[in-house]
Amino acid sequence: MKKGLLRFAAVAALSLAAFSTGAARAADMALDAITKAGVLKVAVPQDFPPFGSVGADMQPKGYDIDMAGLIAEKLGVKVELVPVTSANRIPYLTTGKVDLIISSLGKNPDREKVIDFSDAYAPFYNGVFGPADIAVKDAAGLSGKTIGVTRGAIEDIELTKIAPADATLKRYEDNNGTISAFMSGQVDLIATGNVVAAAIIAMNPPKKPEPKFLIKNSPCYVGLNKDEPKLLAKVNEIIAAAKKDGSLAKISNTWLGIDLPADL
Amino acid sequence: MAYQFDFGSLWEYRGVIADGVGLTIRLTAVGTVAGVGLGIAGAFARTSRSPALKAAVGAYVEFIRNTPFLIQLFFIFFGLPVLGVKLSEWQAASLAMVVNLAAYSTEIIRAGIQAVPKGQIEAAEALAMSRLQIFRHVILGPAMRKVWPALSSQIVIVMLGSSVCSQIAAEELTYAANFIQSRNFRAFEVYFVSTGLYLILAVGLRALLKLVGWSLFRRRRHV
């Protein structure tokens, strides 16, 4: 009996040791593991156009899908897209179901405690948009203008604070109301997200909503597990190269209808 | 219940609410005066001998009565600018209410006109009164007296219906309520107060319409 207990303790100690070396080995091994497997598993959105949605042919498409393809291509591996929701994308990464999150993910201190972030790869911001012939550079420039906004949205709250007294804010029920007001010329400018502006540009209207100034900037980052400096460096290297050679600008033009902001 | 009611948080928005009530009253006033006025003209046209005029007014009435008010409003505000007719939200909301109430009141007043005994009209014709004179002096009074309660109800419905004008950012009472709700998230308090205000407005409007009906259309006996 005593012998049996001893043997059990020995086995337990051994397996514990094996487990801890396993864990230690896993750290910073993700890049090698991906290369070896030949597959990069990426969490992508499936219900958030233009970043990720399912097309008529049932194939996922969007900015994030193209970005995932680009990174996999540069790593020389195949891409495996894993559709996620905004609520489960981080658990998918931390439990090892995916290698990267490319899912219009914004950075904040809470998330930074759990995962690491690459450099920004996509613009995501709220701002004021309007046709080219209206010159506005800042909130003070809204003087005398009529600006459409979706009631209660972050743009509404912020603009209410910073807009001059003689600017008129027209608040609509939802994004569609705001878009209609802009398209029908009921408002000079709109305050909205760049994604909404992209949706308007995609309709090819006579008046294109061009970015005038930022209200709140929250670009998208690739999310990675902590303690993977090699993978992080590689992803950042790929993003930097894509910014330089114009392939990221091409993705941005395809899905958002605008060039990359210079400060991204 | 854990919810802490805080009606005091509405106090800082009293100006927004007052402006909202003011616009609701103005919209209702314009809609009622112009709408009922046009309704009387429309009802007169429907009794006309010209089939074309009758058909045109009939088509207008049916078109408005068989489409939603919100769609009419969107068409005027978002649709017409494509044709170069750009109205402010106040103009668009007023126009939609006038157009809407005019159609309903045409139909209601027509019913009243048809209820006027033929003998009275024949008597007026025998006195060589013109068609317009007969309409003004013989038909309109009794017809309006008969349908005034129904017309009053329709006016109150249109007043309450003005709440959808918030959808085109006309800053009436519902817009004010939605605006405040989007700022302090006190849905219960905001909608409780706005419901009470609509109730007061509706009851007040009914009382006012009763008074107007009594003073304009009461039966006068000339002995």
Spatial sequence of strands, sheet with the most strands of chain A: 5-1-6-13-7
What is the typical, i.e. mean, pLDDT of chain B? 94
Count the DSSP helices of chain A: 10
Fourth-level CATH superfamily of chain B: MetI-like
Beta fraction of chain B: under 5%
Level-1 CATH class name of chain B: Mainly Alpha
What sort of overall outline of chain B do the alpha carbons produce when their principal axes are compared? elongated
Largest sheet of chain A: 5 strands, mixed
Helical amount of chain A: 40-55%
What is the 3D form of chain A?
elongated
Q: In words, what does this structure look like?
A:
The complex is a heterodimer of chains A (264) and B (223). Chain A is elongated, with a radius of gyration of 23 Å. Helix content of chain A is 42%, strand content 26%. By secondary structure, chain A is α/β, with parallel strands linked by helices. Chain A folds into two domains: 135 residues, Periplasmic binding protein-like II (D-Maltodextrin-Binding Protein, domain 2); 93 residues, D-Maltodextrin-Binding Protein, domain 2. In chain A, the strands form three sheets. In chain A, strands 5-1-6-13-7 form a five-stranded mixed beta sheet. A five-stranded mixed beta sheet of chain A has the order 10-9-11-8-12. A three-stranded antiparallel beta sheet of chain A has the order 2-3-4, covered by helices on one side. Chain A is built from ten helices and 13 strands. In chain A, a hairpin with a 5-residue loop joins strand 3 and strand 4. With 223 residues, chain B is mainly α. In chain B, 75% of the residues lie in helices and 0% in strands. Classes of the chains: A alpha/beta (264), B mainly alpha (223). Chains A and B meet through strand 10 and helix 7 of A and helix 3 and helix 7 of B.
